Amino acid sequence: MEILKFALRGVSANKLRSGLTVLGILIGVGAVILLVAVGNGSKVAVEQSLQNLGTNTLTVSSGRAIRSSTYSTDLTLSIVEALRDKNAAPDVKSVSPVVQTQQTLTVGDTDHTTPVIGTTTDYIGASSSKVAQGEAFTADDYATAARVLVIGATTAGELYGTDDPIGQQVSVGGQIFTVIGVLEKKGSTGFADPDDTAIAPLTAVQKALTGYGPVSSITIEAVDADSVSAAQAEVTAILNTKMHVTSTSNTPYQIRSAAQLLATRTETAQTFTTLLGAVAGISLLVGGIGITNIMMVTVTERTREIGIRKALGAPRRVILTQFLLEATMLSLVGGVLGVAGAFIGANFQITGITPVIVPSSVVLALGVSVAIGLFFGSYPASRAAGLRPIDALRYE
Q: Which residues pair with 198 in a beta bridge?
């Protein structure tokens, strides 16, 4: 207790200097926790976004195969019909051809550019979307190429504000469509907004906007999440037959499942989190160097005090423990305040991402701050404990 009292007295003797040292550790610890929380928040947002797209879906798109006269590199509606064959693909629940085009939607004086998706009636269910207002287009709308539109929540807000969009007309690339539904809000990931979209019958999009030709991609819904692998094998076999594939190492298509995409995005987010944590760790290291500097100055200023205490019989370990305690106090107080600051900062969105604090990062940051106090304070403490009483008493 006596050593602790001496340490507290030493820290409080120069409040401004101690405060600035604590501030360095505070910034370092807070930055580590908060930046790791931002990386984790982006990971959570990506996972949520992909789950909203459906965990039992497959997406077929044109691949990077070398052009060959034996290959058909286009995704056509005849391939879509082949994929709907229940005998060849029993694990496939629905197949939705997709034609996507970027178009400017105009209502009065308001313009908004958004992706317009031409597809079939199964697409909304396969993509885990729900109609919040109005209704989705029907098989009759598809058959008659009706110019009807189901828009996302963001698109509705940009074009109509708080007005009801149902039944309103909108110009899509110069062609008039009627809004019949608004999708339920999914929420932005910070990287892309799944609510900024417009969906119409494929027949209407091809007739009015893109012309007739191959589709951009094919969305396939498996019977359930456990059947995704089996459905992918069935789809691969059909595509190889229809597209005359002779080498499976060089296919003119790509098949991606939501699970594969989730794994890739999660790995990317983890790398991003590690990078942010490493960058923030540098500031924590700088704070530790600041502790060494301050403790060296402290030892120099208190040389005579150390000499008097050693002359009165204070052993080496007492002096060593006192200065180690002072360094650890500074780093620990800075660490605790840094954790508090990080929790406050986590209540605000950063670049569109809501930080999610990882408990392990809090424990690690606090542990590192204490370790920094011990490590960077050990040399000044050892130097103080090693002073000869006669040299210390002579010091001016």
A: 116, 151
Residues 284, 25 contacting (CB under 8 angstroms)? yes
Q: What is the separation of C-alpha 393 from the centre of its chain, rounded to a whole number of angstroms?
A: 60
CB neighbour list of residue 5: distance below 8 Å, 6 or more residues apart: none
Q: Indicate the burial class of 394 (C-beta count within 10 angstroms; 0-12, 13-18, 19 or more).
A: exposed
Tokens of 294: 């301050």
For residues 79 and 253, the answer to whether their CB atoms sit within 8 Å is no
Angle CA 281–286–292, to nearest 5: 130
Task: For helices 316-345 and 258-301, give the axis angle rounded to 10 degrees.
Answer: 140
CB 145 within 8 A of CB 207: yes
Residues 6+ apart with CB under 8 A from 104: 111, 112, 113, 172, 173
Mean pLDDT for each 10-residue chunk of the chain (396 residues)? 71 76 82 81 69 72 59 79 90 90 90 92 85 91 93 90 90 92 75 82 91 88 82 88 79 77 67 73 76 74 74 78 80 86 83 78 81 76 73 62
SS3 label, residue 90:
coil
Reading the block at residue 16, the tokens are 């401004």
Say how far apart CA 310 and CA 320 lie, in whole Å: 12
Q: Is 108 left (phi over 0), alpha (psi -120 to 50) or beta?
A: left
- What's the Rg (C-alpha) of the chain? 33
Spatial contact of 381 and 295, defined as CB atoms under 8 Å apart: yes
